[in-house]
Write a structure and sequence with these properties.
By secondary structure, the protein is α/β, with parallel strands linked by helices. It contains 23 helices and 18 strands. 43% of the residues lie in helices and 15% in strands. It is globular, with a radius of gyration of 31 Å.
Length: 747
């Protein structure tokens, strides 16, 4: 399946694409982004909209006439519903598909898959190096070190030129410097082609002239590169050799100024912070699992010093220690670096801690708020209340004035009273022209000659009350009643080891879950959480101890790999839809109408459920489908392993509300502090507004007020209950991070 073709355009100025200096700031007005299902051509010449071609471009519009504005050194949180185009916008920025982004601006990006875009195609010099090989041949440490392209390009040139002087062939330095010159011209050609394809009018004419000039230089350079050695005269050899010496000296001075010795140490410290052990550094990158590859790729992004760093869901594969470490790292980076960061994450606490400004992608527009996510949500509620009250008061005033107008008109016509008729017309004109926003942009009283100066229609802007951007409310079916009471599941002195001579993964575990209980399990990766829940789900038997379940227990088990499994099914059977899959799995237990109702309650409505193949569903939609697969039988126990991955934080809030009102028991394994606090501890988050459907401790009825709520941490194969819940575990991790060596110590 071909990747979608992104078409980006904006209001261009004479400076776009002509500034060869990198910039930490981006300021693009009139930004339009649309995607097509498949690219028509790979040619850069197709990028230019001619005449009305822009208007005729067919595709899905994601962003229309928006203003993309990034200030140097500011950490931004990009928020918006799933499917609004956040990842597409980030990709367009990283690939510099947006004309207004200076081509020399260095952009590093971490995406939601382990495939990384070519972050800066123009800076890649195609020279040989003994350090280069296939990505699969690199060790973990080498993969991280290779992340900084600008630094590696310099190293590659140094190695390439040094080898040429060590060679027995006298013309080797000449060939080397010509090769470097040719690659630099090819990069210049790439920029000139892009510039010519995006310019029109007189600037386009000049850009095309420049392109022809660069093309001629590339051809001449290629001729020099392929010139037989007998045709190269002695004077040319002398000049090129001298240029090679000077270039090598300049590059070596740049290497010394980079403090490359410290870079390796910094890379090691970042890897340790992200959960790697020193023994992992020499492992081949190709042998890592998907989650550890993403951590390694994240480290390769953090090791760079780009102008703009883009992080798309960086916490997806991190445990809480890694999340808290990354929080502290990015907070320190804000103090010591001018790097601009654009961050997308479903983890509310993480966004709140790292970001100082919020970018809101909504209704195909970009808006900005100065403050973190918590401040944005509080301000939004305050604005909604303020404008709502103003509109309500004005509607009452207008209703009263309209009534007086009707009465005056009626009396005036009946008595032929011209004064009454003039008064009625005057008041009607006031209703038509002076109703609307009553405050200026600065918050003071609105004055027509000051705040609406120049030509205008005499009408003030209509009062618009901000509306909540709520996603589909998730509804989870109630659990089936049990015919007789008793614990749903219990582990008594359970131990487990995968091999007879192996160390115990679980050691002396005692856990009992009753109907209505809320149990949260946190811990570092590899501590045994997944093994524990597989024992509870009945997928494995303990090596020692007793695991029992209620005779009539039905378990709904959400594995953290369920989205991957659905994606594989979608690739194997491209025509299968969510409705077809559920029909097959329920084996006729539900009618089509019942299944549609279930899928709709979980956010897969109408044609999305019946017509869209699974292979084309987003990650968030696949999570909803996976939920439907485990709740259709109305289980009494829900075991959820990292369910918030792939969801935006709006949907995480809806999920927390749905789980809070579930009448069965919930065992939640998650690194998301917000989700554990709300679902397990039943707390309304003081920093983030919960929706009206949330049922926490304060809303518990007499039937549920005695339900058990417990947060455990899995450590060294044992369960440790946290009396202060998530907060206690987080404090212990912060203390642990403070003892780690900082990557910034020698910066």
């Amino acid at each position: 399946m071909s990747p979608p073709n992104i078409i980006a355009s904006c209001k261009q100025t004479r400076f776009h694409l002509q500034d060869d200096k990198p910039s930490h700031e981006i300021d693009v007005e009139g930004l339009d982004i649309l995607v097509k299902s498949a690219p028509e051509t790979d040619s850069l010449s197709k990028m230019k909209p001619k005449g009305s071609a822009k208007a005729k471009a067919k595709g899905k519009e994601l962003i229309t006439d928006a203003h993309l504005r990034l200030k140097a050194g500011v950490h931004y949180g990009l928020i918006g519903r799933n499917g609004t185009g956040k990842s597409t916008l980030l990709k367009a920025m990283a690939e510099k598909l947006i004309p207004g982004i200076p081509h020399a601006t260095r952009i590093a990006i971490l995406q939601q898959s382990d495939h990384q875009f070519d972050q800066d195609a123009s800076s890649n010099i195609d020279v040989e190096s003994e350090n280069l090989g296939r990505p699969g041949d690199k060790t973990v440490l080498e993969h991280v070190m290779s992340g900084d392209r600008s630094r590696n390009d310099i190293l590659h040139r140094v190695n390439f030129l040094s080898k040429s002087f060590e060679a027995d062939e006298p013309l080797a330095p000449v060939r080397a410097i010509r090769k470097i010159r040719h690659d630099q011209l090819k990069n210049q050609l790439f920029l000139s082609q892009k510039n010519a394809s995006l310019k029109s009018g007189s600037r386009g004419f000049q850009a095309r002239k420049d392109l022809k000039s660069v093309e001629a230089k590339v051809q001449a350079s290629l001729g020099q590169l392929e010139m037989p050695k007998e045709d190269i005269d002695a004077e040319t050899v002398k000049l090129d050799t001298q240029e090679a010496i000077e270039t090598l000296q300049d590059l070596q001075s740049q290497v010394e100024s980079m403090k490359l010795v410290d870079v390796k140490q910094q890379a090691c410290q970042i890897l340790i912070g992200l959960g790697f052990r020193e023994t992992d550094f020499s492992k081949p990158f190709s042998t890592l699992s998907g989650g550890w590859r993403m951590r390694c790729t994240l480290a390769s992004v953090l090791i760079q010093n780009p102008d703009v760093m883009i992080l798309d869901e960086p916490t997806n594969f991190l445990d809480l220690l890694g999340v808290v470490w990354l929080e502290k790292y990015l907070q320190k980076l804000r103090e010591l670096s001018e790097t601009t960061i654009v961050l997308v994450s479903h983890d509310r606490d993480f966004v709140n801690a790292v970001c100082e400004e919020i970018i809101i992608l909504r209704d195909q527009k970009l808006s900005y708020f100065r403050g973190n996510l918590s401040a944005f949500e509080k301000d939004f509620e305050a604005q909604k209340l303020y404008w709502g009250r103003m509109k309500e008061a004005q509607e009452q005033k207008v209703a009263h004035m309209e009534a007086t107008v009707r009465d005056a008109m009626k009396i005036g016509k009946k008595t032929n009273d011209d004064n009454k008729l003039r008064m009625a017309k005057s008041r009607q004109r006031k209703i038509d022209e002076r109703m609307g926003v009553q405050v200026s942009a600065s918050g003071g009283k609105f004055k027509l000659n000051r705040d609406l100066a120049g030509w205008h229609s005499n009408k003030r802007a209509e009062i618009e009350v901000p509306t909540d951007e709520k996603g589909t409310v998730l509804i989870i079916p109630d659990a089936t009643e049990l015919r007789f009471p008793g614990p749903l599941a219990s582990l008594e002195s359970v131990s487990f080891r995968y091999k007879a001579d192996a160390t115990c993964t679980l050691n002396d575990i005692n856990l009992v879950i009753h109907m209505g209980d809320r149990v949260g399990i946190m811990g570092l990766n590899g501590s045994g959480k997944t093994t524990l829940i597989r024992l509870l789900a009945g997928d494995m038997l303990p090596s020692k101890g007793t695991a029992t379940t209620h005779p009539r227990l039905k378990v709904g088990y959400y594995s953290q790999h369920m989205v991957d499994e659905l994606q594989e099914q979608g690739r194997a059977k491209p025509e299968v839809t969510a409705l077809a899959l559920m029909t097959n799995e329920t084996e006729g237990s539900f009618s089509e109408g019942d299944l549609r109702g279930l899928l709709s309650a979980l956010g897969l409505q109408g044609r999305t459920a019946s017509d869209v193949p699974i292979s084309k569903l987003s990650g968030g939609q696949l999570v909803r489908l996976a939920l439907a697969r485990i709740v259709w039988s109305s289980p009494q126990l829900l075991i959820l392993d990292e369910i918030s991955t792939h969801l935006d934080f709006h949907t995480v809030t809806a999920l927390a509300s749905a789980l809070s009102s579930f009448n069965g028991a919930i065992l939640l394994v998650s690194h998301d502090r917000f989700l554990i606090r709300s679902v397990v501890e039943g707390k309304r988050d003081i920093d983030h507004k919960m929706d009206d459907y949330f049922e926490g401790i304060d809303e518990e009825s007499e039937e549920t007020q005695n339900r058990r709520r417990a947060v455990f941490v899995m450590k060294a194969g044992r369960l440790h209950e946290q009396q202060n819940g998530v907060e206690q575990f987080e404090e212990s991790l912060v203390k642990r991070i403070q003892k780690m060596p900082s990557p910034f110590d020698k910066m």
